[in-house]
Design goal:
Blueprint lengths: L5 H4 L3 E4 L5 E3 L9 E5 L6 H11 L2 H6 L3 E6 L5 H7 L5 E4 L4 H5 L10 H5 L2 H12 L15 E5 L6 E6 L9 H8 L15 H4 L2
Parallel strand pairs: 3-4, 4-5
Antiparallel strand pairs: 1-2, 1-5, 3-6, 6-7
Helix pairs in contact: 2-7
Amino acid sequence: MANVDLAEVGKNLLKSGETGENVELQSLWQDQPVVLFFLRRFGCQVCRWTASEVSKLEPELRASGVALVGVGPEEFGLKEFKEGGLFKGSIYVDQQKRTYKDLGFKRYTAISVVPAAMGKRVREAAAKAKAAGIQGNFSGDLLQSGGMLIVAKGGEKVLLHFVQDSPGDYVPLEDIAKVLGISAKVKEGQRPVCNDDVCTR
């Protein structure tokens, strides 16, 4: 994994999903540690499920002075994502996808996205989303991958830099809590039994 130059990537601009204001990424970790969850896209069913999972940590994060921030690569689907209420943190958009590129979040090609989207991890995560009643759509940029970046207060250091290898990859809740040194009383959503009917939808 390449080292993240926080001074450089911190200059990238993100647009607030609440106010429309552009802010420098580094402003999000200036006064507190931050968990930055980079979604593939706001309409992605697996991303929505992962957003709901990460949000289970929000009370512990808040109590420990840690910000929870979701970042999407485009505004498409943002309104529906916010209305779904699955994510409990602040939401921003990386309109130029510069931070996605700087953090090594790859872009699939039209050919490589199909096998990636049909992989076992994606099917399992999609089954979890379906079992939780979380729907998605195929609108927006289907080729962008995502990940997570956890940064210490003041940009002192990167605590975690996770890049999706598959669209179904995510950081387990206990790993997030561990790198932040907090105790979490939540558990990952139960994995449903995956059969042909559940996994292919």
